[in-house]
Sequence to fold (522 residues):
Amino acid sequence: MRIADSLWGVRCVWLRYFDVFRKSYVYYLVTTFSEPFLYLLAFGFGVGSLVGAVDVDGAAVSYRRFVFSGILGQALLFQSFYDASYGAFIRMYYQRIFQAMAVTPITLSEVLWGELLWDASKATLAAVVIASIGAALGDFPLYAPLAVIPVAFPSALVFAGLGLAVAARSRTIEEISYPQYLIVFPMFLFCGVFFPLEQLPQPLQWIAWALPLTSVNSLMRTLVLGFPFQPWAIAVLAGWLLVLVGYSRRAMFGRLVK
Amino acid sequence: MRALRVVHLTKRYGTLEAVADVSFDVAAGECLGLLGPNGAGKSTTIHCISGFYPPSAGQVFIDGHDVHADPKRARQVLGMCSQEDTLDSDFRVLDQLVRHATFFRIPTREGEPRAKKLLERFGIAEKSGELVEALSGGMRRRLQVARALISRPKVLVLDEPTTGLDPGMRRSLWEILVAEREQGAAILLSTHYMEEAERLCDRVALLHKGTIRDIGSPRSLIERHMGAAQVEEELRPGVRWKRPPNLEDVYLKLTGARLHEAAE
Fold:
């Protein structure tokens, strides 16, 4: 009964976000998909025409397909992180929506689960749409839009956890820029979105492998490009999932509940 | 059974005791006022009553349910209006009441007519389709109180609901609260307006530095501490007058502080 009640609470929060999304879907679609498309056009089609093929672990693919698959990870990272950091900060600090919902039969724990799950859902939707376009262009197999979901959702949850933790620890909205520039952008640049990790010096490769986006890109490329499966990528991702989701919830509780 | 029962509530932040062994109850159809200046512990008490802040000691029962042990059931009958603006600015005026109702398992087909009636009652029906940003400060405050009523709560907790309202709006909100009380709601109202406490509250708890200095009806508090003697005060230099004592005088006598003084 308690579990069913809690699930109901989380569902209520998730539906609240969905309702906001539904009412302004044109805005969300434009802001969600314009960035990955621009990256695809600039790097996939632009740089891709100069680079030609990329060889990773004996598998050769066109640079466009390589970048396209990396954009799946990039979309998950940016979409989840920004929604859960800037978005949650606004909801928590300016709108005080968390506080308003958490004095109804919905608990703060359910509010935070709803926030994380919604951020992950929205990012997963972005990944599915990008995978659909990749399938339509012939860069990914036809099953790619469905195949990416089992990796996209937990990956998005990891980045949403990172974003929510940042929101909880930032005193002002400007402070979110620190982890944005010091963690998110370096991940975006050095975790295999634009080039194979083998191009980096060995120490940087080790650091990159420890970061979650590298595992996300590795698993995504296994799914949509048929790259060799790296089992430890699941372990790294699961580790980050436990750490970041757990920490972000504790940090937000600590911020709100005195 | 008392609709709201607060038992030996204590809230500490390190060595600071923000709320110290506070106990009171509110019956159905009764309005209890928490009267004190900023920093007296009113909002902390209310955060603990809503279950948002865990108490350091003590318990809060809403309709017989311990709000910290069983928050879902307790808050099913609780309507909260916090001091801060917590309106959901992602929704239009009507929609946000309907959405808020769903948090109490009230389906849209039931929540929407309720919301429309509330908006009419609060005089903001013509703003139904507007975003919250389009409302004046007074309208936002009324909307927040209206939202607290959407679930037809047995217990209504209002943290300084009329702060920032002009006298006319304040009076119209008072009329609504009186009507709610007459319909059987138990109301806990925190305020630093003496006139509000005297007019609305059946009983008043005088809160100072986290402790209740006394509790009783406004009349009994005045009689107990001030007697029938007139209070003389200086309106302006050289102009003195005598008036009947009020709750402000009681508060000053008991605590040495005025209601509009900020806590040190």
Remarks:
- Chain B is about 35% helix and 25% strand.
